[in-house]
TrEMBL record:
Pfam families reported in the protein's UniProt record: ECM10 (PF21203)
Region forming the signal peptide: 1-23
Keywords, sorted A to Z: Signal
Domain of life the protein comes from: Eukaryota
Species of provenance: Aphanomyces stellatus
Keyword Signal in annotation: yes
CDD domains attached to this UniProt entry: EMC10 (cd22209)
Record protein name field: Aste57867_20346 protein
Amino acid sequence: MQPAMSLLFLCVCLAAVAQVVHCDPRENENRMGFDDADLSSNSIAQSKRGYSFDLEHSISLDGKVGVFSSRGEVAIDFERAKPAVTFPTKVVLNDAQRASFQKLLSQNGFYTVRARSEPGNPNSAFVVASVPSCFLVKNRFREDLAFHVNDVGNLISIEFRTPAINAIDCASVSKRNVKDASFTSIGSVALAVDGPEVLRVATAAKVAVPQGVKPVKDENAPADEENQSLFRKYWYIIVPVMILLLSGGGSDPAPVQGAAAGGAARR
């Protein structure tokens, strides 16, 4: 019976010690996911030489987004210190396209471009961008396109950075007769960057709760005293008892048979 009790107390103490040693899981949550070596390695986009892709545009006859057609290639070069964009083909609208653009302008329509999000993959989704047609006419078809790419070099979005004009100027421009529609295109690459880190806000000190009001438990608050481990609360009792049981000091002394026999004889 005594060895069994000693073993039971020993198991309880070991379990309590293991609970104390176990760290807060919130301390390890930032270690999950990628290793530091993976996060600090060069992205695939920066290691590529670059690629070219087809940029399409839409000039619908009814002033709405319609059928897209190719307007030429766009080349992105990642070899330079700052990635560069070039337009090998100059875009010049023919007579039919210029007439469509004239109607688009009169209806305050949008000129739209698109490209595949994964260059070279015809099944990938399209990335689309639009700009009011009056912006282009006001700036004499000078356009500034920004191509946003992720860490593997795929397109995330296309952004028109053509200077904007107000509604009054746009209404005036929409009455112009477009005689020459020759685009002057410049571009830039916007690489993916890490966002700001969210810092953990320190928990405010406990405030005394008025009598009769039930306190609200904070999920991020430390554990209450009653939720602490058994060993941390009663270590000063468990440790001496464990030492006493392991040393054998807690066993009852065996009765002396001689003394018992002598007492029986005196009776």
